[in-house]
Design a protein that fits this description.
Shape: globular
CATH architecture: 2-Layer Sandwich
Oligomer: single chain
CATH class: Alpha Beta
Strand content: 15-25%
Helix content: 25-40%
Number of strands: 12
Number of helices: 8
Length: about 325
């Protein structure tokens, strides 16, 4: 799943050609979900992950507000990357290393190669300042990082993971295009233990705290943190850590009462096929935040997908 700009889907009513029989497999029978989970607590890890993702979200909020064209570079895959990408990964990497120095492994999306090139010093200094400002506002560690410290923290995300031990998986900004246009994006963080996803945290800095059809948030407050520990349920709270709310699976059984959405970006979606499937199933409802039943998207990379598995399982 990619937290890009979301595209509300309202299929038009047309006569459809016959489709092949359609069947649905529950998450418990899907190969991407583990049927056997070791009974143990990951409370300490979840607390650290929430802290790291929240700090990264605050940094990203600050950068987005003052977004300048000079902040944007170009990746090999031609998707834009910003100061916030690097700062987010540096912050998450630093926090997790501080909390778990003896067992730290991070599969991240960024590295410092481009930041070490001639002409990137100003960019590196800005990233370093943003990271240090974030750490000062948190007040937990009492350190000031040098530019080299920040570059090393970014490069700490070079782990290849594996089926042994524990590995954190991070997408420092999932939805870069949405971020650049002032829209939706997320910081996605997950923990794998012996190859199984055991917790996930999704920080959504621009997501409203209440559904868009709910009038209980008169100030249009935004900034959500979704998190889950395997076997422990899924929850949502504001980025400040207050008012935790349990996230539950909908009891809707009639497809006509269900809602779905898909990625706004057509490059990794099949809008025509999604619409066809929705019509065949009789799904007509508009998508409202907080009332999502179905999401349609093509396959993703590990850092895009991992944090969502325990949240949706």
């Amino acid at each position: 799943m990619s937290i890009n700009w979301l595209r509300v889907v309202s299929p038009s009513i047309v006569k459809l050609p016959p489709l092949l029989p359609f069947s649905y497999s529950s998450p418990s029978s899907c190969s991407c979900f583990s049927s056997v989970v070791v009974a143990m607590s990951y409370d300490k890890e979840l607390t650290a992950a929430k802290k790291a993702a929240s700090l990264a979200a605050r940094l990203c909020q600050k950068v987005q507000k003052s977004l300048l064209q000079s902040d944007v570079q170009s990746k090999n895959d031609r998707s834009p990357v910003t100061v916030a990408d690097y700062g987010s990964q540096a912050l998450v990497s630093f926090v997790l290393q501080q909390e778990f120095p003896a067992e730290f492994s991070l599969v991240g999306e960024e590295d410092s190669k481009d930041l070490r090139k001639d002409g990137a010093q100003e960019l590196v200094e800005r990233i370093t300042k943003l990271v240090n400002d974030s750490l000062v506002s948190d007040g937990s560690y009492g350190v000031t990082l040098s530019t080299e410290d920040v570059l090393k923290a970014i490069d700490s995300g070079k782990s290849e993971g594996g089926s042994q031990g524990r590995h954190w998986v991070l997408d420092p900004i999932d939805g870069t295009k949405g971020f650049l246009r002032g829209g939706q994006y997320a910081i996605a963080l997950a923990l794998l233990d012996r190859g199984k996803v055991v917790l996930g945290v999704l920080a959504c800095p621009n997501l409203p705290l209440t559904p868009i059809n709910d009038q209980r948030s008169p100030n249009n407050e935004v900034g959500c943190l979704f998190f889950a520990e395997v076997g422990g349920g899924s929850y949502m709270q504001p980025l400040d850590g207050s008012s935790t709310v349990k996230v539950q699976v909908s009891g809707v059984e009639n497809p006509e009462e269900a809602s779905f959405f898909e990625s706004y970006e057509a490059a990794h979606s099949m809008h025509d096929l999604s619409s066809l499937i929705a019509q065949k199933l009789g799904v007509w409802s508009w998508m409202l935040q907080g009332t999502l039943w179905t999401f349609l998207r093509e396959s993703c990379l590990i850092w895009t997908q991992a944090s969502l598995l325990p949240i949706r399982s």
